[in-house]
Amino acid sequence: MTVLSPRLDMAAARERLAARSRVRLPGLFQAGVGGLHEAVTDPAMVWMRAMHNPYNADVPVAMFEAEPLHEQARLIALAHEEATEGFQFLFDRLRLGQARSLGLAIPQALYDLHAWFNTGPFLEFARTLTGDDRIAYVDAQATRYLPGHFLNRHTDEHVDAGRLYAYVLNLSPDWRAEWGGLLMFLENGEVSETFLPGAGTLNVFRVPQSHAVSMVAPFAGLPRYSITGWWRTTPPPGDDR
Q1: 105-116: per-residue pLDDT in tens?
Q2: Strand, helix or coil for residue 44
Q3: Structural domain spans, the chain
Q4: DSSP characters for 209-222?
Q5: What is the DSSP annotation of 53-76?
Q6: Which of 26, 45, 109, 216 is within CB 3.0–4.6 Å of 39 for a Cys-Cys bond?
Q7: For residue 84, how many other CB atoms are within 10 A of its CB?
Q8: Which CATH number fits domain 10-232: 1.10.287.110, 2.60.120.10, 1.10.10.60, 2.60.120.620?
Q9: 51: number of CA atoms within 13 Å, CB side?
Q10: Residue 241: what pLDDT?
Q11: Which residues pair with 184 in a beta bridge?
């Protein structure tokens, strides 16, 4: 069972979020983080390879890796070319609402987390932290960044999506800054603040806000795992409560 730390200074967290539009809450998720890490590293986990495309469609990692190496390299090179001047990303994910709708047999702990995010107590926590009573739904996706994976700068703004705040629940233990995978916030083209992934740490930031995830280094000691999503006014299409 996932439990929030009772040691959170809610007043200080609210003040920080209001002043900077973002807040990092180290160790907020204490109990249950180990179980979530076991879930995302479970061989039964279904991963989809995500790359920006006109159809907003992900490809099963097993299918991507079944392609000849030269075809995989071609697709990655194309993503790199598009990333030079525009928006692009490359990482693995699984949207939990859609996974439930499809009946995928993934670790139950992930479905349980998504359900818990949408309970009264957690929604009240989100509203109290942000001071925004419009928060009515939390979507969630498990993400995995392998060496070479990245997410270019963007703002998370999406017309009619009802996104109010974005969040990242980090799961990888003992992450090192030199491994990359850093959540970077940008202002006027400069990096204004960086959040290091830390197991059990929750990052929350207001939408829209320019940010990116730096490329994970080839020498990173493990994948960068997290649960991410948005605190919304309404569920997105295809999400199953």
Answers
A1: 999 999 999 999
A2: coil
A3: 10-232
A4: --EEEPPPPTT-SS
A5: -TT---EEHHHHHHS-HHHHHHHH
A6: 109
A7: 8
A8: 2.60.120.620
A9: 17
A10: 46
A11: 194, 212
Angle, helix 33-40 to helix 108-117, in steps of 10 degrees: 130
* Torsion sign across C-alpha atoms 207, 210, 211, 212: positive
End-to-end CA distance of the chain: 19
CA atoms of 162 and 136, how far apart (whole Å): 10
Q: Tokens standing for 89?
A: 């990303």
Cα–Cα distances in angstroms (integers) from residue 33 to residues 4, 11, 13, 152, in the given order: 10, 24, 21, 27
Tell me the percentage of the chain whose pLDDT exceeds 70: 98
Average pLDDT over residues 185-205: 95
Beta strands in the chain (DSSP E): 22-25, 48-51, 59-60, 89-95, 137-138, 141-145, 150-154, 163-170, 183-187, 190-195, 202-206, 211-213, 224-232
Q: What is the dihedral of CA 33, 36, 38, 42, to 10 degrees?
A: -170
Q: What is the mean pLDDT of the chain?
A: 94
DSSP 179: G
Count of CB atoms within 10 A of residue 118's CB?
A: 17
